[in-house]
Write a structure and sequence with these properties.
By secondary structure, the chain is of the alpha+beta class. The protein has ten helices and 15 strands. The chain starts with a strand and ends with a helix. InterPro entries: FAR1_DNA_bnd_dom, MULE_transposase_dom.
């Protein structure tokens, strides 16, 4: 970025400000960014956008790319950007929509509407135009805010700046902690302790939860069963004693699935005295009952001996489950087997 600043002798002095890679990745900028003024020159549109974003973060307000003007070049389908307008995110007024006698009505102010909006008709903006040489020149700049008072500490409430603070290193640590069993609150407190205070954290617990939820949704794009199969395959590669088996129905869709990890198989050899089977633990969004086999160790603690998702709670399904589960265990029958008083379960046993 190049800035033209007038000195005492009314001569133009060229001052070049470089944006480092660390600033681009983390969004943190220790240098003071001067406010925009008419006559500032930039080499490209990207430099203008980075500069105004840095300035908005420093002042504590969000920016929006409001509009751009194009000119045709070399044909009807070939367009070239020649001007662009950036505004404060609080520009304009909130438009409320409601119905009056069945007709949709729009109004600037509506006391009955509970909708909250950050728009307060703030006039702050910056407009740049492209020259024949390809540079971008600031043609108009308004820096005085109205109806709201941004401060540098308020930049953490702007979603754009929160996203910049969660870089690849933070995401990697967050996912590692989450996969290790830590919940979102524990992850947030750990990140806050690294920054000395919670006030220095520019993101919220809800924002971390949204990132984790989006990552789960991304993994599930190929299908829930494919994601489960990849997980089983990875577990089997990590430990050959991991056991899983499934079967499909007439329509070639997943019907029943059962899995037992290596620890459960080893625990069964020592604590097979009494096995409890529960098929009513949980019904998930797919209406598949989650069934589990549970035992008790020598400390009186419950231990998990196997899990399954079943399509039906009939004797045929339970018979397949019990036969499959017993086939992966050492060839030793349990002394006692406890279950609910269900006719299908008794018949299968």
């Amino acid at each position: 970025m190049v800035e033209f600043v007038g000195n005492d002798n009314n001569e133009d002095v060229i001052e070049e400000v470089n944006i480092t890679n660390d600033e681009e990745e983390t969004g943190v900028d220790d240098d003071v960014v001067t406010p925009p003024f008419v006559g500032m020159v930039f080499h490209s549109w990207e430099e203008v956008d980075k500069y105004y974003k840095r300035y908005g973060r420093q002042q504590g307000f969000g920016i929006l790319r409001a509009a751009g003007s194009y000119v045709q070049k070399g044909g009807a389908k070939s367009k070239e950007l020649r001007g662009y307008l950036w505004k404060c995110e609080c520009y304009g007024r909130a438009v409320y929509r409601h119905r009056v006698e069945g007709k949709r009505v729009y109004s600037i102010r509506d006391k009955l509407c509970t909708k909250r909006s950050k728009k307060c008709d703030c006039p702050v903006l910056m407009y740049c135009n492209r020259t024949k040489d390809g540079d971008w020149v600031v043609k108009r700049a308004v820096n005085e805010h109205k109806n709201h008072c941004p401060t540098p500490r308020k930049s953490k409430y702007v979603p754009r700046y929160r996203q910049e603070d969660i870089n690849s290193l933070v995401k990697r640590k967050m996912f590692n902690d989450y996969n290790s069993g830590a919940n979102v609150l524990q992850i947030f407190n750990c990140l806050a302790s690294e920054r000395n205070e919670v006030e220095n954290v520019t993101f919220t617990k809800k924002y971390l939860q949204n990132i984790i939820s989006r990552d789960k949704a991304e993994k599930m794009k190929v299908g829930d069963w494919n994601a489960m199969w990849k997980y089983f395959k990875a577990m089997s590669t990590d430990n050959e004693n991991f056991f899983h088996k499934h079967r499909v129905g007439m329509d070639n869709k997943l019907q029943d699935v059962m899995w037992v990890n290596a620890r459960s198989r080893a625990s069964y050899e020592e604590f097979r005295d009494v096995v409890v089977f529960d098929s009513t633990y949980l019904t998930n969004e797919y209406d598949l009952p989650f069934s589990n086999f549970v035992g008790v160790n020598h400390h009186g603690q419950t231990i998990l001996l196997g899990c399954a998702l079943l399509s039906h709670e009939d004797s045929e399904t339970f018979e397949w489950l019990f036969t499959t589960w017993f086939s992966c265990m050492p060839n030793k029958k349990p002394i006692g087997f406890l279950s609910d008083q269900d006719a299908a379960t008794r018949k299968a046993l």
